[in-house]
Structures are given as C-alpha cells and as structure tokens.
C-alpha cells in the first residue's frame, strides 16, 4: 500500500518562490515534511522568516532568499542560495505571482507588465537558472510551474493573469521536450485554492468570508469546483518532486479540494478541406455545417449545485 512515507525527499533540495504565504508556503512546508531542504523565497522578508521558522520548528531545514521574482538576478539568487546553503538543487517550484485584475479597457500598461513580469517572466528566469544548474551535473531535476484555470479557460477581468498562466502552460510543454535528454521533468500545476488572491474573485466572496472565519469549505465547492485550501494543493508538489514522478513530464495537472485532474493540451477539434484553399465566401458557406457545432466554450464555471 502506498503511503506518504514512500514519497520521501530526503537528501533533496528544493526552491519554492512566493513561499511567504498561500500555496507557496503550504508547498514549502509539505516538501520539508517529506525530508527536503527548502529555500523559501518571497519579496516579504517577514513572511520568509516566518515560513523558515515554521519549517525549523517542525524539524526541517530551510533558508530564506528574499527577492522579487521576475529578474534574472532574483532567479539566480534562489539557485545560489540552494547550492551555498545545502550543496545542490534538485527541485525548483516557480510559484510566485500577483494579481492586478481589471477588464481589458481599464487595464493599465503598468498593471499588465507587473503581472506578466512576475508570473511569465518570473517563471522563465527561474526555470532558466534552474535548468542551467541541472544541466551542469548529472542526475536530472524537477521544474514545477504553476498555471491556472484562468490560463486554461480564460476568466472575465483577468487579461494579464490569464495570458501569463496560459503562457506558463505552453512553456511547460516546450521545456519538457528541451530538457528530456537531461532527465529533467517539467510540469505545470493548475491549482484551485482559497487564498488571498482567489478571495478577491466576486463569485467566491461568501466562501472566502466563511473560510477566513475558520469554517470548512463546503463539500459542493470542494467537489464541483475543486476548491480547497492551500494545504490541499501542496501534496502535488511533493509527488511531482519525488522519484515516483520521474516518468511524468509536459503535463498540466489540476488539484484542489477533493479533485485531482489532468488537463488536455490544445488540439484541433474539427477541420474542413477545400481544393485550392478558402475564400471568405467559402468559409461563410462551410462554417455552419462543418465547424459551428464544434465551437468551444470559454470561462470558469462558478455555479455550484446545492449541497
């Protein structure tokens, strides 16, 4: 029978960005409980110290790396801290993120750039720094990225966030091919957890208030939406960091509440052929019968059936 003790990470060194709170903190604590030494990154020095202290109090090993993810320097600081404090790096969890939600016509350049810089550029710079380290010695490694349902489906008011998270999923697929020969796996987690970020979603306001009071997330939300706590997401980080996940790469894996899922990659769902190519009139004529019935829906379904 499989137990958590089977998935021990003793001797492994992991970096978790954005680990001062939320999913990142839960992941850092879970990785440490499984035996990994953990570099805790966040731009909030106090939050870094609290997570490091919590890991130490539970008997784990941790070191802090205070930096705002996005720049090459921040990524290299995280890798260097792992090597200097613990002698190596085996797992890099690129989790750091921010929200600047607004509809398209109200989104400023500054807010768009901030979200893309932290999520998309941050994942790129961190993965590049980690990949260079992994390729410098034998033994492979693990890149664990964090995408989003919004990146898979789109979400009203999340232009920058959805774009960044969709890009992260695409990078995971690309990097899984590029790093396969060096035995580095690359996967993107698609989490759904009640955190300070998701609490700002209007459709989840009531559940967020109840969760903040210490009440459990209702079963319909845990199952239909796959919405849980940050601690519900953390086990997937541990599994993907373990030797048992050595054959899993290039995947977008959802987790939250009571739900574990595998997301499909974009692919053609239908096609039509016309000798000599297509004119606008020919497309208009063919569309209703050939492709219209395959049109894809968009957005996140926040409707929850009654308990």
UniProtKB/TrEMBL annotation:
GO terms for molecular function: oxidoreductase activity. Belongs to the short-chain dehydrogenases/reductases (SDR) family. Signal peptide: none annotated. PANTHER family: DEHYDROGENASES, SHORT CHAIN, SCP2 DOMAIN-CONTAINING PROTEIN. SMART domains: PKS_KR. It comes from the Bacteria. PROSITE patterns: ADH_SHORT. Keywords: Oxidoreductase. It holds the Pfam family adh_short. SUPFAM superfamilies: NAD(P)-binding Rossmann-fold domains (SSF51735). Residues 12-192 form the Ketoreductase domain. Coiled coil: none annotated. This is 3-oxoacyl-ACP reductase. InterPro entries: KR_dom, NAD(P)-bd_dom_sf, Peroxisomal_Beta-Oxidation, Sc_DH/Rdtase_CS, SDR_fam.
């Amino acid at each position: 029978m499989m137990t958590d003790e089977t998935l021990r990470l003793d001797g492994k060194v992991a970096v978790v960005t954005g680990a001062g709170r939320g999913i990142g903190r839960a992941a850092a604590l879970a990785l440490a409980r499984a035996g990994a030494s953990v570099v805790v990154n966040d731009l909030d020095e106090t939050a870094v110290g609290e997570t490091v202290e919590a890991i130490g109090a539970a008997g784990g090993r941790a070191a802090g790396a205070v930096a705002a993810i996005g720049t090459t320097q921040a990524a290299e600081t995280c890798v260097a801290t792992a090597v200097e404090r613990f002698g190596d790096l085996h797992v890099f969890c690129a989790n750091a993120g921010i929200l600047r939600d607004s509809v398209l016509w109200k989104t400023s350049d500054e807010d768009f750039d901030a979200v893309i810089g932290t999520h998309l550029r941050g994942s790129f710079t961190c993965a590049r720094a980690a990949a260079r380290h992994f390729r410098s010695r034998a033994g492979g490694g693990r890149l664990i990225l964090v995408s989003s349902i919004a990146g898979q489906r789109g979400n009203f008011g999340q232009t920058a966030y959805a774009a960044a998270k969709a890009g992260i999923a695409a990078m995971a697929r690309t990097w899984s091919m590029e790093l396969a020969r060096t035995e580095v796996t690359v996967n993107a987690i698609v989490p759904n957890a009640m955190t300070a970020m998701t609490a700002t979603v209007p459709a989840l306001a009531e559940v967020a208030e109840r969760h903040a009071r210490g009440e459990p997330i209702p079963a319909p939300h845990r199952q239909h939406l796959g919405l849980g706590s940050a601690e519900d997401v953390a086990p997937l980080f541990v599994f993907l960091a373990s030797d048992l996940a050595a054959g899993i790469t290039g995947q977008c894996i959802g987790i939250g509440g009571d739900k574990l899922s595998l997301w499909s990659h974009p692919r053609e769902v239908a096609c039509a052929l016309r000798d000599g190519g297509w004119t606008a009139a020919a497309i208009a004529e063919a569309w209703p019968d050939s492709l219209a019935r395959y049109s894809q829906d968009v957005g996140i379904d926040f409707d929850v059936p009654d308990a």
